[in-house]
Design a protein that fits this description.
Blueprint: E1 2-8, E2 17-23, E3 30-39, H1 42-48, E4 65-72, E5 84-87, E6 90-92, H2 98-101, E7 113-114, E8 134-138, E9 143-144, H3 151-154, H4 160-170, E10 178-182, H5 186-197, E11 201-206, H6 212-218, E12 222-225, H7 229-235, E13 239-244, H8 253-256, E14 259-267, H9 279-283, E15 288-291, H10 297-310, E16 316-320, H11 324-332, E17 339-343
Parallel strand pairs: 10-11, 10-13, 11-12, 13-14, 14-15, 16-17
Antiparallel strand pairs: 1-2, 3-4, 3-8, 3-17, 4-5, 5-9, 6-7
Bound molecules: NADP nicotinamide-adenine-dinucleotide phosphate and zinc ion (2 copies).
Length: 348
């Protein structure tokens, strides 16, 4: 076994604290790498506090992971020692179901093995995430990170990036469309960058008036403060597509009403409570309300390659791991510009 160190939540109520554990000895298909950076996703906080139920403790969160390969198994052809690699939300799936065969591993019919708060398929050992010094992952779930990208700023691409890129691609967002992004946090600011890169007219909907300048700098054409009724009213029935990244309960009908005929609202945020839908919000204009989960492995690689070609990365605030609990507090207050990333050199 490989000795590993990280920060873990021991239960839903305690702050994260230093934790020693073991990783599996790399098998023939495994890649071992030293973690350089790991982003802090709001999903880490939801799960560390057991807001979705069923959390496995102790839990080392983290699924926006970038590092350098230190060891490869005998069958590994995709990577060599020294390569810059990334791991996102999944470390394994069944590889045999229809979804897996279509490159939609995130919808594996037998359930994906997530990077943490999940169990390895054979051993049933709990998986542990990237707030740690070392990872061992099957090469099929490891991504190549373009060398021209700053690794700290690229880490959030592994979740916030692919989670926003995938629905924009699937719903074919393109030039000439009006696209709304609700919530300007980690996911939202990547949604703005991608929608803009795909040529859309981008409108940010924020519940605070404090992010207007940032939203415009990040690529938005317009910014609407969602508590301003006149501004909301002016957008009603005008959008082709809305990406909702909000982490807390909110009135979904206010955003469905923004769509024009046949428009789609796609939910990627995961508030811990149901979001009641008023039937007329959908029926009136034949609107669609859908959801989307991260993205497949090949699509994640395509997204990273796109980012390498276009210089797309996250706006990050790099912190030492000792500040992870403060970062969670600030994340809950919306006080982040626009992703916290842990520098793993700080993990002594
Ligand atoms: P984040 O950085 O905290 O951003 C969430 C944003 O939501 C905030 O910046 C804020 O934007 C808005 N917001 C927060 N509280 C609000 C409230 N009470 N009312 C209205 N708006 C509020 O979080 P994140 O990391 O981007 O994650 C967002 C959500 O996506 C989380 O629920 C996370 O679990 C989920 N997620 C889903 C997937 C997936 O595969 N579907 C993947 C990753 C994450 P404004 O201040 O601009 O309003
Ligand atoms: Zn995430
Ligand atoms: Zn499968």
């Amino acid at each position: 076994m490989i000795p590993a160190r990280g920060y873990a939540a021991q239960d839903a109520k305690s702050p994260l604290a230093p934790f020693h554990f073991e990783r599996r000895e790399p098998g023939p298909d495994d890649v071992q790498f030293d973690v350089q950076y790991c982003g802090i996703c709001h999903s880490d906080l939801h799960q560390a506090r057991d807001e979705w139920g069923g959390s496995i403790f102790p839990m080392v969160p983290g699924h926006e992971i970038i590092g350098r390969v230190t060891r490869v198994g005998a069958n590994v052809t995709k990577f060599k020692v020294g390569d810059s690699v990334g791991v996102g939300c999944m470390v394994d799936t069944c590889r045999a179901c229809k979804a897996c065969k279509q490159g939609l591993e995130q919808y594996c019919e037998r359930g994906a093995t997530y990077t943490y708060n999940s169990r390895e398929r054979e051993s049933q050992q709990p998986t542990q995430g990237g707030y740690s010094n070392v990872l061992v992952v099957d090469q099929a779930y490891v991504l190549r990170v373009p060398e021209n990208l700053d690794p700290a700023a690229a880490a959030p691409l592994l979740c916030a990036g692919i989670t926003t890129y995938s629905p924009l691609k699937h719903w074919n967002v393109k030039a000439g469309q009006r696209v709304g992004v609700v919530g300007l946090g980690g996911l939202g600011h990547m949604g703005v960058k991608f929608a803009r890169a795909f040529g859309a007219h981008v409108i940010v909907f924020s519940h605070t008036d404090k992010k207007k300048q940032d939203a415009l700098r990040l690529g938005a054409h317009e910014v609407v403060v969602s508590s301003n009724e006149a501004e909301m009213k002016a957008q009603e029935g005008t959008l082709d597509f809305v990406l909702d990244t909000v982490s807390a309960p909110h009135d979904i009908n206010a955003y469905l009403r923004l769509l024009r005929i046949d428009g789609s609202l796609v939910l990627v945020g995961v508030p811990e409570k149901p979001l009641p839908v008023q039937p007329f919000s959908l029926i009136g204009q034949r609107r669609s309300f859908s959801g989307s989960s991260i993205g497949g492995i090949q699509e994640t690689q395509d997204m990273l390659d796109f980012c390498g070609q276009h210089g797309v990365v996250s706006d990050v605030e790099v912190i030492p791991i000792q500040q992870v609990n403060d970062a969670y507090t600030r994340l809950l207050k919306g006080d982040v510009k626009y992703r916290f990333v842990i520098d793993m050199k700080s993990l002594k």
